[in-house]
Design goal:
Elements (H helix, E strand, L loop, with lengths): L2 H29 L7 H36 L13 H26 L7 H31 L1 H12 L2 H22 L4 H20 L1 H7 L4 H41 L20
């Protein structure tokens, strides 16, 4: 493979991952009926999720796994086995606990970064989705790159397509839900909403990862290879359903909090359709 061909393949993978994520972002943005967010700040949040949150999350997860592995080797007791990143239990601890906690925390920082742009509750969901979709795009690009290096361009693009219809949407919806909680906390002074919805995002993320790893979970439990294959197929189908239900729920919350949120935060603001009508002209005497 020539250097030029390699660069072309790399660009193809990058565009294959970027285009669906931007389509999802435009779809989420269009859900708001009043005062749609400008593209500039939204794309800033998107690339914050892509370039900052993704890279820092990967570094933190690698550090935590390495530290856990060292601890489990230094203290080889059964209760520390789950910290060993090279063990099956360590793998599940990573994907079900460490990754959701770290990644949702870093994506949440992107919503907090955009706090000055939040004028209504629905803005929190839209900016949260932007950060999450950016994170999902860049993560998916790297997964696609790995598949490309082992199986070629078609394998890379196929994996990107599968993840663009599942994990990318999941990342967008989890951070959107944190954005809802953060906006409610900031704009409507609802104590505990930001923390509660962060934990919800973590739980959603962990649930998705459990479905994606259903075949591996069944294997860990000692079931036969045929049952493992069946569980893997069922898990694959369920992650698509899970991701679309999650993003549709986020869109429903955007619709519910779009103008009603504006009425709560800015009581003097009314859309033209409900503006007070002028009274009758004074009668002449």
């Amino acid at each position: 493979m020539s250097a030029l061909s390699g660069i072309e393949d790399l660009i193809a993978l990058l565009l294959a991952a970027l285009f669906p994520a931007l389509v999802w972002l435009a779809w989420i943005r269009s859900t708001e009926r009043y005062g749609k967010e400008p593209w500039g700040p939204l794309l800033g949040s998107f690339f914050y999720g892509a370039l900052f949150a993704t890279i820092v999350a990967a570094i933190l997860e690698a550090v935590l796994v390495a530290a856990g592995t060292k601890l489990s080797q230094a203290y080889p007791a059964p209760e520390f086995t789950f910290l060993n990143g090279s063990s099956p239990l360590g793998y599940f601890f990573l994907v079900l606990v460490i990754a959701p906690l770290v990644e949702e925390g870093l994506k949440a920082s992107g919503v907090v970064r955009a706090r000055a742009r939040l004028s209504v509750v629905s803005d929190g969901l839209v900016f949260g989705a932007a950060v999450g979709l950016g994170f999902g795009f860049f993560e998916t690009f790297f997964y696609g790159l790995g598949a490309f290096l082992t199986g070629g361009l078609v394998a890379g693009i196929l994996l990107i397509l599968v993840r663009s219809l599942s994990s990318v949407l999941l990342h967008g919806s989890t951070t959107a839900m944190f954005g809802y909680g953060y906006a409610e906390s900031r704009l409507n002074h609802r104590a505990g909403y930001a923390g509660g919805y962060y934990l919800l995002a973590v739980a959603m993320h962990a649930g998705f990862n459990a479905l994606a790893g259903l075949g591996a979970i069944v294997a860990l439990l000692g079931f036969s290879a045929s049952i493992q294959d069946y569980a893997s197929l069922v898990g694959l189908l369920l992650v698509f359903v899970y991701a679309f239900v999650a993003i549709e729920h986020a869109r429903a919350v955007i619709l519910r909090t779009d103008f009603p949120g504006a009425a709560q935060v800015h009581p003097r603001f009314r859309p033209p359709s409900v503006a007070p009508r002028p009274g009758p002209p004074p009668r002449s005497r």
